[in-house]
Design goal:
alpha/beta, Rossmann fold, DNA polymerase, domain 1, 2 domains, six-stranded parallel beta sheet, 10 helices, 6 strands, globular, binds 1,6-di-O-phosphono-beta-D-glucopyranose, binds magnesium ion
Length: about 220
């Protein structure tokens, strides 16, 4: 697979679990708007941009809205989400992630975050991990969101690496699709039915075996 030089991490679901706060934000909005929404439906939102999540919610509830209403609904959800973010700290790092980042850093590899979230900088700051990364790409970095390869390609460019030299850690189906489309080594975190198409797959961050990935 060529020499691996850079490791790119998704944020929600790989470094931290903000999915729960996203869920609570969408749930509050859905309840206020008399729309149906549950944890199962929230799974569809993994790695998907805010506006695309809102469109999925509206479509499932047969709700037609004006562009202004659409904007207001997305903003309202984001405000709820930001309230929940006030509670996060270093304790919210997923078990095992710090060790992985430290190991890779000690070995001299380049590290990056590539997230669909427009709240990435707030989350990263609250987690206290900004200094560990050579570059951070977020929901503002490119126009086309995952499953398009754009965010990962943009990140490789910022790392000054060829896509083939990059490994992507992703918990979302669309994220693994994007990593494969970018010609990178994809590491899926989660069940087979979601990320089974990745080159490597581990059930959780704690189960990641770096040696398996690096020795190939
Ligand atoms: P925001 P990731 C994604 O983060 C979340 O998984 C997804 O549920 C969310 O809708 C998206 O960020 C956008 O988030 O509303 O903060 O811009 O997995 O790409 O790190
Ligand atoms: Mg994710």
């Amino acid at each position: 697979m060529g020499e691996l030089k850079g490791y790119i991490f998704d944020l929600d679901g790989v470094i931290t679990d903000t999915a729960e706060y996203h869920y609570l934000g969408w749930k509050k909005l859905a309840d206020e708007e008399n729309m149906e929404f549950d944890r199962e439906f929230n799974e569809k939102f993994r790695g998907v941009s805010r506006m695309e999540c809102l469109d999925l919610l509206l479509e499932a509830n047969n709700r037609k809205v004006t562009p202004e209403e659409r904007k207001e609904l997305a903003e309202r959800k984001n405000n709820y989400y930001r309230e929940y973010l006030k509670n996060i700290s270093r304790d919210n790092l997923l078990d095992g992630i710090e060790e992985i980042l430290n190991t890779l850093k000690d070995k001299g590899f380049k590290l990056a975050i590539a997230s669909a979230s427009k709240n990435t900088s707030i989350v990263v700051k609250k987690l206290g991990i900004k200094e560990m990364f050579d570059t951070i790409s977020d929901g503002y970095s490119v126009k086309k969101s995952k499953p398009a390869p754009d965010l990962f390609l943009h990140t490789a460019e910022k790392l000054n690496l060829d896509p083939k030299e990059c490994v992507v850690f992703e918990d979302a189906e669309a994220g693994v699709d994007a990593a494969i489309a970018a010609n990178m080594t994809a590491v899926g975190i989660g069940p087979k039915k979601r990320v089974g198409h990745a080159h490597y797959r581990f059930d959780s961050v704690q189960d990641i075996e770096l040696k398996k990935i690096m020795n190939n």
